[in-house]
Design a protein that fits this description.
It contains three helices and two strands, in the order H-H-E-E-H. By secondary structure, the chain is an alpha+beta fold. It binds zinc ion.
Length: 83
């Protein structure tokens, strides 16, 4: 199993990153742009930017850009667990 230590390098990611100015959509704090801003891989795993579905897929949300935002992995997970 390979681990990715960099944000997804896609057009959608860059677009959302610019729109949100690198801040988490859920807690509003800045997200690390790459893992080298953090000293520990475990921190990166929690704070790395991930795609969050504004309307959860379980509730019929789509994978389209207008239903996606960027959030810390930890915030995303917390939100998911709460639903
Ligand atoms: Zn966050």
């Amino acid at each position: 199993m390979s681990q990715s230590f960099a944000p997804p390098d896609t057009e959608l990611f860059r677009k959302l990153w610019e729109t949100q100015e690198g801040c988490c959509a859920l807690c509003g704090l800045a997200m690390p742009k790459d893992r080298f801003e953090l000293t520990h891989a475990t921190l990166w795993q929690k704070q790395r930017p991930t795609f969050d579905h504004i309307r959860p897929k379980a509730a019929g949300g789509s994978d389209r850009a207008d239903n996606l935002q960027l959030a810390h992995a930890a915030c995303n997970k917390r939100k998911g667990a709460r639903v």
